[in-house]
Amino acid sequence: MPTPQPTSQLTSQEAYSAPASFRKLENLHILFWLVKDISWCMIWRPLGLLMVVPTLGIALVIAWRTRANTSERAHNLAIVFWITANSYWMTSEFFNFDAVQVLPHVTSKQLALVPFLIGLSILAYYYLVQKPRETSDSPAAAV
């Protein structure tokens, strides 16, 4: 399967594109993610837990393959942390430790905030620091 070769900086005239085989992997990722979340909703514990592996695994592959493009890397890393948080939260509910107090006013389920906030921090850094730098460094910004 060919790896997409995005540029590290995109101007307003360029667009990220991925080979069809890579898009198929992304679409398969969505399927696994939906099956995982449906399993969570329906309390199908074995299937939900099983779906964590391909959902998170493909998210990691996608993040790795898009690492050369700062925007794609940031968004795909945020997705990795989102799935991590989501999977932890699901597991805490499946095994009934979601309401366990781990700190004053903090339950085990709320520990899912850690990876959620890591993902949010990655996106905040991208939009507040990295993207403005890319925009000011691009030839289109000089026009």
TrEMBL record:
<protein>
    <submittedName>
        <fullName>Uncharacterized protein</fullName>
    </submittedName>
</protein>
<keyword id="KW-0812">Transmembrane</keyword>
<feature type="transmembrane region" description="Helical">
    <location>
        <begin position="111"/>
        <end position="129"/>
    </location>
</feature>
<keyword id="KW-0472">Membrane</keyword>
<keyword id="KW-1133">Transmembrane helix</keyword>
<feature type="transmembrane region" description="Helical">
    <location>
        <begin position="74"/>
        <end position="91"/>
    </location>
</feature>
<feature type="transmembrane region" description="Helical">
    <location>
        <begin position="43"/>
        <end position="62"/>
    </location>
</feature>
